[in-house]
Design goal:
- It is built from 13 helices and two strands; from the N terminus they run H-H-H-H-H-H-H-E-E-H-H-H-H-H-H.
- The chain has two domains: 211 residues, no CATH class; 74 residues.
- The protein has a two-stranded antiparallel ribbon with strand order 1-2.
- It holds the Pfam family DUF2785.
């Protein structure tokens, strides 16, 4: 507890510094600071984890106060078994905070690398592969947790994947792999109530920005509706069906309006509209 208190005091002091002051402070003990932030990145203390550690990481990365060596080292650590994959598969443990906030730091580094390009294509490929593994394996779908703050693993994981898809090294032929990760998130247990659908659709936005085919996106949305139909045929109006139905219908509604706002995907929105109407009739008027 004493160590946490001292770390909080230091990070609050950092917040009061201008960029030049902070850069000088960090340069005098960069390795030690990174080790301390990474050690406590998943603290169940929301003030330390969210307001201080993550915000410090984001500022240091965004304002280019870290060396390339440190950025690569932080990225490697965040992707390891003690961070992005710590306790993977657990549904109610505090390990979710480590996984989730490691995701956000990975996303921040990928965003910075879009312009600075300090990661090789080989490193990026390995990062992308681990992001897929993580999103498929993550089972803790909680958003906000009373007294501990945001876990939001699916939303933060979506941010991480969106940053990867938007990266210059992302190969368009991997689009179906990215969409499979979105699909896996839609069919997990639990009902999303904290805008996870909005965050997942940033991945779709990033794909379309890379000129992903509207026809292929329509095929994918139809596939999702068909998978939901298969669950319905097997289970009827079960609780598990309603959980997945809620997540998928909300996602499709959000996608429908997001595409409309951006004046893109007329073919996709038409198909979504037809299928939403069919599901409404199936569930509420049959």
């Amino acid at each position: 507890m004493k160590a946490n208190h001292e770390l909080k005091e230091m990070l609050w002091r950092f917040k009061g510094m201008n960029n030049e002051e902070l850069k000088l402070e960090v340069s005098q003990g960069e390795n030690q600071l990174m080790a301390s932030l990474l050690k406590h990145i998943g603290s169940p203390d929301a003030e330390l984890r969210d307001q201080l550690i993550y915000s410090t990481f984001h500022r240091l990365i965004d304002e280019e106060m870290l060396s390339m060596h440190s950025l690569k080292s932080v990225l490697k650590t965040c992707l390891d078994q003690e961070h992005l994959f710590l306790g993977i598969g657990e549904r109610t443990a505090d390990s979710v905070f480590t996984r989730s906030f490691s995701s956000l730091v990975i996303a921040a580094i990928l965003e910075k690398d879009k312009n600075k390009r300090f990661l090789t294509e080989s490193i990026f490929s390995g990062v992308f592969e681990k992001i897929q593994d993580y999103l498929i394996a993550e089972q803790d779908t909680r958003g906000y947790i009373d007294e501990k703050g945001w876990a939001h693993s699916i939303a933060h994981g979506a941010d991480m994947l969106a940053s990867a898809v938007g990266h210059p090294c992302f190969p368009i032929e991997e689009s179906k792999v990215a969409l499979n990760s979105v699909e896996q998130c839609l069919f997990k247990k639990g009902i999303y109530v904290d805008d996870e659908d909005e965050r997942l659709i940033f991945i779709i936005d990033a794909l379309l920005d890379k000129s992903f085919s509207e026809t292929e996106l329509e095929k994918w949305t139809l596939h999702i509706f068909n998978e939901l139909e298969a669950i319905f045929q097997a289970e009827g109006f079960s609780f598990a069906f309603f959980q997945r139905k809620t997540n998928i219908i909300n996602f499709m509604k959000t996608l429908y309006f997001r595409l409309g706002f951006k004046n893109r995907g007329d073919q996709v929105t038409c198909s979504i509209k037809v299928n939403l109407k069919l599901w409404h009739e199936k569930v509420y008027t049959s």
